[in-house]
Amino acid sequence: MKKKDLVKLREETIESLTKKAHVLKSEIARMILDWKSNPPKNTNQISNKKRELANVLTILRQKQLTI
To answer: Quick one: which H or E segment has residue 21?
Structure first.
């Protein structure tokens, strides 16, 4: 993620970050299941999604601790 994307994530509410984390988890699970039958051309997609999920969860936890 780029810095401007992280800034936008920090501006979001806890509820929207929780929803975004849930969506990312389901996307990662779907991508892992589809990996065997239909391998993607970009093999870094799962890693990128996991990294994005880690960023969302980190920002979510920071917000929870500050409130």
So the answer is: helix 14-37
